[in-house]
Amino acid sequence: MKPRLYPLARSLLFRLDPERAHHLALAAARVLEPWAARLPMPPPSEGRLALRRMGLEFPNPIGLAAGFDKNGCAPHLWESLGFGFAELGTVTARAQPGNPRPRLARFAAERALVNRLGFNNDGAAVVAERLARLLAVRPCIPIGLNVGASRAVVGDARAERGDYLTSVELLAPLADYLVVNVSSPNTPGLRDLQSPDRLGALVACIRDGLAGLPGSASRCPLLVKLSPDLEDGEIEAICRAALDAGASGFVATNTTLWRPAGSERLASVAGGLSGAPLRSRSTEVVRRIRGAVGDGIPIIGVGGVMSLDDVLAKLGGGADLVALYSGLIFEGPFLARRLNRDLARRRGAGEGEAHFAASGVFPGRSPASRSCR
By three-state DSSP, how is residue 290 classified? Predict the structure, then answer.
Protein backbone atom coordinates (compact mmCIF):
# COMPACT_ATOMS: atom_id res chain seq x y z
CA MET A 1 0.00 0.00 0.00
CA LYS A 2 1.32 3.43 -0.92
CA PRO A 3 1.28 5.95 1.96
CA ARG A 4 -1.15 8.24 0.18
CA LEU A 5 -3.70 5.41 -0.01
CA TYR A 6 -3.87 4.84 3.73
CA PRO A 7 -6.58 7.48 4.38
CA LEU A 8 -8.87 5.50 2.09
CA ALA A 9 -7.98 2.22 3.77
CA ARG A 10 -8.46 3.82 7.18
CA SER A 11 -11.93 5.06 6.27
CA LEU A 12 -12.89 1.48 5.39
CA LEU A 13 -11.25 -0.07 8.46
CA PHE A 14 -12.87 2.48 10.76
CA ARG A 15 -16.27 1.22 9.65
CA LEU A 16 -15.44 -2.13 11.26
CA ASP A 17 -15.48 -3.09 14.90
CA PRO A 18 -12.02 -2.06 16.21
CA GLU A 19 -10.98 -5.54 17.30
CA ARG A 20 -12.09 -7.05 14.01
CA ALA A 21 -10.06 -4.42 12.15
CA HIS A 22 -7.06 -5.29 14.32
CA HIS A 23 -7.42 -8.98 13.52
CA LEU A 24 -7.56 -8.15 9.81
CA ALA A 25 -4.32 -6.17 10.17
CA LEU A 26 -2.69 -9.10 11.96
CA ALA A 27 -3.91 -11.51 9.30
CA ALA A 28 -2.22 -9.31 6.71
CA ALA A 29 0.93 -9.24 8.85
CA ARG A 30 1.00 -13.05 8.99
CA VAL A 31 0.67 -13.24 5.21
CA LEU A 32 3.49 -10.73 4.70
CA GLU A 33 5.83 -12.18 7.34
CA PRO A 34 7.38 -14.94 5.16
CA TRP A 35 8.03 -12.38 2.43
CA ALA A 36 9.55 -9.95 4.91
CA ALA A 37 11.76 -12.68 6.37
CA ARG A 38 13.21 -13.53 2.95
CA LEU A 39 13.64 -10.01 1.64
CA PRO A 40 17.29 -8.91 1.79
CA MET A 41 17.45 -5.41 3.14
CA PRO A 42 19.81 -3.10 4.98
CA PRO A 43 18.86 -2.18 8.54
CA PRO A 44 16.05 0.43 8.57
CA SER A 45 18.18 3.42 9.52
CA GLU A 46 17.98 6.91 8.14
CA GLY A 47 21.34 8.66 7.93
CA ARG A 48 22.85 8.87 11.39
CA LEU A 49 19.91 7.65 13.45
CA ALA A 50 21.66 4.55 14.77
CA LEU A 51 22.48 4.18 18.45
CA ARG A 52 23.59 1.59 20.97
CA ARG A 53 21.71 0.86 24.19
CA MET A 54 21.64 -2.15 26.53
CA GLY A 55 24.49 -3.63 24.51
CA LEU A 56 22.20 -3.71 21.47
CA GLU A 57 22.43 -1.93 18.14
CA PHE A 58 19.32 0.03 17.17
CA PRO A 59 19.34 1.22 13.54
CA ASN A 60 16.92 3.98 14.53
CA PRO A 61 15.13 5.02 17.74
CA ILE A 62 11.51 4.41 16.59
CA GLY A 63 10.02 1.10 17.72
CA LEU A 64 6.80 -0.86 17.81
CA ALA A 65 5.23 -0.90 21.28
CA ALA A 66 3.83 -4.03 22.90
CA GLY A 67 0.20 -4.85 22.28
CA PHE A 68 0.04 -4.85 18.49
CA ASP A 69 1.72 -8.22 17.86
CA LYS A 70 0.83 -10.01 21.08
CA ASN A 71 1.62 -13.51 19.83
CA GLY A 72 4.83 -12.87 17.91
CA CYS A 73 3.32 -13.54 14.49
CA ALA A 74 5.41 -11.15 12.40
CA PRO A 75 8.82 -10.33 13.91
CA HIS A 76 10.44 -9.53 10.54
CA LEU A 77 7.64 -7.36 9.18
CA TRP A 78 8.27 -4.50 11.59
CA GLU A 79 11.79 -4.08 10.26
CA SER A 80 10.34 -3.91 6.74
CA LEU A 81 8.05 -1.09 7.88
CA GLY A 82 11.00 0.93 9.12
CA PHE A 83 10.95 0.26 12.84
CA GLY A 84 14.28 0.22 14.65
CA PHE A 85 13.06 -2.35 17.19
CA ALA A 86 9.87 -4.24 18.00
CA GLU A 87 8.41 -5.28 21.35
CA LEU A 88 6.13 -8.31 21.05
CA GLY A 89 3.54 -9.41 23.63
CA THR A 90 2.27 -9.11 26.29
CA VAL A 91 2.70 -12.88 26.76
CA THR A 92 1.55 -14.76 29.88
CA ALA A 93 2.61 -18.20 31.05
CA ARG A 94 -0.91 -19.53 30.54
CA ALA A 95 -2.91 -19.09 27.35
CA GLN A 96 -5.93 -16.93 28.12
CA PRO A 97 -8.81 -15.46 26.12
CA GLY A 98 -8.82 -12.08 27.85
CA ASN A 99 -11.85 -10.11 28.95
CA PRO A 100 -15.32 -10.43 27.39
CA ARG A 101 -16.07 -8.50 24.20
CA PRO A 102 -16.55 -5.73 23.26
CA ARG A 103 -13.20 -4.73 24.73
CA LEU A 104 -11.62 -2.27 22.29
CA ALA A 105 -13.00 1.16 21.41
CA ARG A 106 -11.71 3.65 18.84
CA PHE A 107 -12.21 7.43 19.06
CA ALA A 108 -11.17 9.02 15.77
CA ALA A 109 -11.80 12.64 16.78
CA GLU A 110 -9.68 12.26 19.92
CA ARG A 111 -7.11 10.03 18.14
CA ALA A 112 -7.43 7.62 21.04
CA LEU A 113 -8.07 3.97 21.83
CA VAL A 114 -9.54 2.45 24.98
CA ASN A 115 -8.86 -1.23 25.54
CA ARG A 116 -9.74 -3.74 28.22
CA LEU A 117 -8.35 -6.75 26.38
CA GLY A 118 -6.88 -8.39 29.47
CA PHE A 119 -3.70 -10.04 28.14
CA ASN A 120 -5.42 -12.22 25.53
CA ASN A 121 -2.62 -14.37 24.09
CA ASP A 122 -1.60 -17.89 23.10
CA GLY A 123 0.57 -18.50 26.16
CA ALA A 124 4.34 -18.55 26.55
CA ALA A 125 4.93 -22.10 25.32
CA VAL A 126 3.07 -21.58 22.04
CA VAL A 127 4.61 -18.14 21.45
CA ALA A 128 8.10 -19.51 22.19
CA GLU A 129 7.62 -22.37 19.74
CA ARG A 130 6.41 -19.97 17.05
CA LEU A 131 9.27 -17.52 17.58
CA ALA A 132 11.89 -20.27 17.64
CA ARG A 133 10.77 -21.09 14.11
CA LEU A 134 10.31 -17.54 12.82
CA LEU A 135 13.53 -16.23 14.35
CA ALA A 136 15.78 -18.97 13.01
CA VAL A 137 17.01 -16.09 10.86
CA ARG A 138 17.10 -12.97 12.99
CA PRO A 139 15.91 -9.59 11.74
CA CYS A 140 18.43 -6.77 11.89
CA ILE A 141 16.46 -4.98 14.60
CA PRO A 142 16.31 -5.90 18.30
CA ILE A 143 13.25 -7.92 19.29
CA GLY A 144 11.89 -7.34 22.78
CA LEU A 145 9.46 -9.70 24.48
CA ASN A 146 6.97 -8.36 27.00
CA VAL A 147 5.76 -10.73 29.75
CA GLY A 148 2.84 -10.32 32.15
CA ALA A 149 1.12 -12.32 34.88
CA SER A 150 -1.62 -14.81 34.08
CA ARG A 151 -4.88 -13.56 35.52
CA ALA A 152 -5.36 -16.66 37.69
CA VAL A 153 -2.21 -16.07 39.77
CA VAL A 154 -2.46 -12.35 40.52
CA GLY A 155 -2.65 -11.75 44.26
CA ASP A 156 -0.56 -14.80 45.24
CA ALA A 157 3.02 -13.56 45.41
CA ARG A 158 4.62 -16.98 45.10
CA ALA A 159 2.39 -17.96 42.18
CA GLU A 160 3.01 -14.60 40.49
CA ARG A 161 6.76 -15.08 40.59
CA GLY A 162 6.50 -18.64 39.32
CA ASP A 163 4.23 -17.51 36.49
CA TYR A 164 6.63 -14.79 35.35
CA LEU A 165 9.55 -17.22 35.62
CA THR A 166 7.83 -19.73 33.37
CA SER A 167 7.43 -17.10 30.66
CA VAL A 168 10.95 -15.73 31.13
CA GLU A 169 12.60 -19.15 30.92
CA LEU A 170 10.76 -19.93 27.69
CA LEU A 171 11.14 -16.56 26.03
CA ALA A 172 14.47 -15.10 27.18
CA PRO A 173 16.54 -17.31 24.82
CA LEU A 174 14.59 -15.75 21.93
CA ALA A 175 14.64 -12.13 23.13
CA ASP A 176 17.12 -9.32 22.67
CA TYR A 177 15.54 -7.74 25.74
CA LEU A 178 12.67 -8.54 28.11
CA VAL A 179 10.01 -6.25 29.54
CA VAL A 180 8.16 -7.05 32.77
CA ASN A 181 4.62 -5.71 32.51
CA VAL A 182 3.32 -4.85 35.99
CA SER A 183 1.20 -1.91 34.90
CA SER A 184 -1.71 -2.98 32.71
CA PRO A 185 -4.98 -1.65 34.16
CA ASN A 186 -6.97 -4.54 32.67
CA THR A 187 -5.87 -7.40 34.94
CA PRO A 188 -7.28 -6.76 38.44
CA GLY A 189 -4.55 -6.44 41.05
CA LEU A 190 -1.63 -6.40 38.61
CA ARG A 191 -0.69 -2.79 39.27
CA ASP A 192 -0.14 -3.61 42.96
CA LEU A 193 3.09 -5.24 41.80
CA GLN A 194 4.50 -1.74 41.28
CA SER A 195 4.91 -1.22 45.03
CA PRO A 196 8.65 -1.04 45.75
CA ASP A 197 8.75 -4.15 47.96
CA ARG A 198 6.75 -6.37 45.61
CA LEU A 199 8.45 -5.08 42.49
CA GLY A 200 11.91 -5.53 43.98
CA ALA A 201 11.13 -9.11 44.97
CA LEU A 202 9.71 -9.90 41.53
CA VAL A 203 12.63 -8.39 39.61
CA ALA A 204 15.17 -10.14 41.85
CA CYS A 205 13.41 -13.46 41.29
CA ILE A 206 13.39 -12.97 37.51
CA ARG A 207 17.02 -11.90 37.50
CA ASP A 208 17.94 -15.04 39.46
CA GLY A 209 15.99 -17.11 36.96
CA LEU A 210 17.81 -15.51 34.07
CA ALA A 211 21.16 -16.18 35.70
CA GLY A 212 20.44 -19.91 35.53
CA LEU A 213 19.80 -19.90 31.78
CA PRO A 214 22.53 -20.87 29.31
CA GLY A 215 24.43 -18.50 27.05
CA SER A 216 23.42 -14.93 26.37
CA ALA A 217 19.92 -15.45 27.83
CA SER A 218 21.46 -15.19 31.30
CA ARG A 219 22.46 -11.60 30.53
CA CYS A 220 19.24 -10.55 28.81
CA PRO A 221 18.42 -6.88 29.55
CA LEU A 222 15.35 -6.64 31.79
CA LEU A 223 13.12 -3.55 31.64
CA VAL A 224 10.10 -2.70 33.79
CA LYS A 225 7.00 -1.15 32.23
CA LEU A 226 5.39 1.43 34.51
CA SER A 227 1.96 3.03 34.71
CA PRO A 228 1.24 6.67 33.89
CA ASP A 229 -1.15 6.73 36.86
CA LEU A 230 1.59 6.52 39.48
CA GLU A 231 1.85 9.49 41.80
CA ASP A 232 4.89 11.61 41.01
CA GLY A 233 6.21 11.05 44.52
CA GLU A 234 6.14 7.26 44.06
CA ILE A 235 8.28 7.08 40.97
CA GLU A 236 11.74 7.46 42.49
CA ALA A 237 11.24 4.74 45.12
CA ILE A 238 9.77 2.35 42.54
CA CYS A 239 12.63 2.92 40.12
CA ARG A 240 15.24 2.53 42.83
CA ALA A 241 13.71 -0.74 44.03
CA ALA A 242 13.67 -2.12 40.49
CA LEU A 243 17.27 -1.09 39.76
CA ASP A 244 18.57 -2.41 43.09
CA ALA A 245 16.95 -5.76 42.30
CA GLY A 246 18.62 -6.00 38.89
CA ALA A 247 16.41 -4.20 36.38
CA SER A 248 18.22 -2.70 33.40
CA GLY A 249 15.81 0.14 32.61
CA PHE A 250 12.21 1.20 32.12
CA VAL A 251 9.38 1.50 29.61
CA ALA A 252 7.15 4.54 30.22
CA THR A 253 4.28 4.17 29.99
CA ASN A 254 1.39 1.74 29.82
CA THR A 255 -2.19 2.88 29.20
CA THR A 256 -4.06 5.09 31.67
CA LEU A 257 -7.32 4.98 33.62
CA TRP A 258 -7.33 8.80 33.69
CA ARG A 259 -9.67 10.66 31.35
CA PRO A 260 -9.30 14.29 30.20
CA ALA A 261 -11.76 16.73 31.71
CA GLY A 262 -14.83 17.35 29.58
CA SER A 263 -14.43 14.23 27.45
CA GLU A 264 -17.64 12.38 28.18
CA ARG A 265 -17.10 10.01 25.24
CA LEU A 266 -13.80 8.74 26.58
CA ALA A 267 -15.13 8.61 30.14
CA SER A 268 -18.04 6.43 29.05
CA VAL A 269 -15.80 3.45 28.20
CA ALA A 270 -13.86 1.48 30.81
CA GLY A 271 -10.29 0.36 30.17
CA GLY A 272 -6.84 1.68 29.44
CA LEU A 273 -6.66 4.85 27.36
CA SER A 274 -3.91 5.27 24.77
CA GLY A 275 -3.19 7.65 21.92
CA ALA A 276 -3.03 11.43 21.82
CA PRO A 277 -4.62 12.12 25.25
CA LEU A 278 -1.83 10.10 26.92
CA ARG A 279 0.98 12.03 25.25
CA SER A 280 1.69 14.67 27.89
CA ARG A 281 1.45 12.44 30.95
CA SER A 282 3.59 9.68 29.49
CA THR A 283 6.25 12.25 28.59
CA GLU A 284 6.11 13.66 32.11
CA VAL A 285 6.65 10.17 33.55
CA VAL A 286 9.66 9.74 31.26
CA ARG A 287 11.01 13.01 32.63
CA ARG A 288 10.38 11.93 36.22
CA ILE A 289 12.09 8.59 35.71
CA ARG A 290 15.11 10.22 34.11
CA GLY A 291 15.33 12.61 37.02
CA ALA A 292 15.15 9.71 39.46
CA VAL A 293 17.69 7.39 37.82
CA GLY A 294 20.13 9.82 36.20
CA ASP A 295 21.99 9.24 32.96
CA GLY A 296 22.93 5.84 31.61
CA ILE A 297 19.75 3.92 32.46
CA PRO A 298 17.78 3.13 29.28
CA ILE A 299 14.22 4.44 29.00
CA ILE A 300 11.77 3.65 26.21
CA GLY A 301 9.13 6.37 25.92
CA VAL A 302 5.64 5.24 24.87
CA GLY A 303 2.33 7.08 24.68
CA GLY A 304 0.67 9.29 22.08
CA VAL A 305 3.51 9.22 19.53
CA MET A 306 2.11 10.25 16.14
CA SER A 307 4.38 13.05 14.89
CA LEU A 308 7.96 14.25 14.89
CA ASP A 309 7.13 16.71 17.67
CA ASP A 310 5.91 13.81 19.80
CA VAL A 311 9.19 11.96 19.22
CA LEU A 312 11.22 15.05 20.06
CA ALA A 313 9.23 15.60 23.25
CA LYS A 314 9.98 12.05 24.44
CA LEU A 315 13.67 12.35 23.56
CA GLY A 316 13.85 15.77 25.17
CA GLY A 317 12.26 14.35 28.31
CA GLY A 318 15.01 11.78 28.64
CA ALA A 319 13.91 8.78 26.57
CA ASP A 320 16.59 6.89 24.67
CA LEU A 321 14.11 5.17 22.39
CA VAL A 322 10.50 5.87 21.43
CA ALA A 323 7.81 3.28 20.70
CA LEU A 324 4.31 3.61 19.28
CA TYR A 325 1.12 1.60 18.77
CA SER A 326 -1.97 3.83 18.45
CA GLY A 327 -0.13 5.95 15.91
CA LEU A 328 -0.18 3.01 13.50
CA ILE A 329 -3.97 2.99 13.68
CA PHE A 330 -4.41 6.69 12.99
CA GLU A 331 -1.38 7.43 10.80
CA GLY A 332 -0.85 4.15 8.97
CA PRO A 333 1.82 1.46 8.57
CA PHE A 334 4.43 3.82 7.14
CA LEU A 335 4.52 6.07 10.19
CA ALA A 336 7.90 4.79 11.41
CA ARG A 337 9.55 5.47 8.05
CA ARG A 338 8.08 8.96 7.95
CA LEU A 339 9.23 9.75 11.48
CA ASN A 340 12.74 8.52 10.75
CA ARG A 341 12.88 10.56 7.55
CA ASP A 342 11.72 13.69 9.38
CA LEU A 343 14.10 13.02 12.25
CA ALA A 344 17.02 12.67 9.86
CA ARG A 345 16.04 15.87 8.05
CA ARG A 346 15.79 17.76 11.32
CA ARG A 347 19.23 16.54 12.27
CA GLY A 348 20.63 17.36 8.84
CA ALA A 349 19.33 20.90 9.15
CA GLY A 350 21.08 21.24 12.52
CA GLU A 351 17.78 21.80 14.34
CA GLY A 352 16.65 20.42 17.66
CA GLU A 353 20.08 19.47 18.95
CA ALA A 354 18.92 19.83 22.55
CA HIS A 355 16.33 17.14 21.96
CA PHE A 356 18.95 14.67 20.78
CA ALA A 357 21.93 15.33 23.00
CA ALA A 358 20.61 13.76 26.18
CA SER A 359 19.46 10.54 24.52
CA GLY A 360 22.57 10.01 22.44
CA VAL A 361 20.70 9.72 19.15
CA PHE A 362 22.95 10.60 16.21
CA PRO A 363 26.25 9.60 17.79
CA GLY A 364 28.02 10.42 14.53
CA ARG A 365 28.59 6.81 13.51
CA SER A 366 26.64 3.72 12.61
CA PRO A 367 26.84 0.81 15.06
CA ALA A 368 28.57 -2.34 14.01
CA SER A 369 26.35 -4.74 12.10
CA ARG A 370 24.87 -7.68 13.97
CA SER A 371 24.52 -11.11 12.46
CA CYS A 372 21.22 -10.97 10.60
CA ARG A 373 19.82 -11.42 7.13
Answer: helix
Say how far apart CA 255 and CA 281 lie, in whole Å: 10
Asked if the bond preceding 253 is cis, omega within 30° of 0, the reply is yes
Q: Is 265 helix (H, G, I), strand (E, B) or coil?
A: helix
Q: Which of 184, 227, 282, 359 is catalytic?
A: 184
Q: Domains in the chain, please, with CATH? A: 3-357 (3.20.20.70)
321-324: long-range pairs with CB below 8 Å, 24+: 321/53, 321/58, 321/61, 321/62, 321/63, 321/84, 321/85, 321/359, 322/61, 322/62, 322/63, 323/62, 323/63, 323/64, 323/65, 323/66, 323/85, 323/87, 323/251, 324/62, 324/63, 324/64, 324/65
Residue-level pLDDT at 369? 42
274 classed as catalytic:
no
CA distances from 149 to 90, 181, 296 (A): 9, 8, 29
Average pLDDT for consecutive 10-residue bins of the chain (373 residues)? 76 95 96 92 66 97 98 97 97 98 97 98 98 97 98 98 98 98 98 98 98 97 98 98 98 98 96 98 98 98 98 98 97 95 84 52 44 64
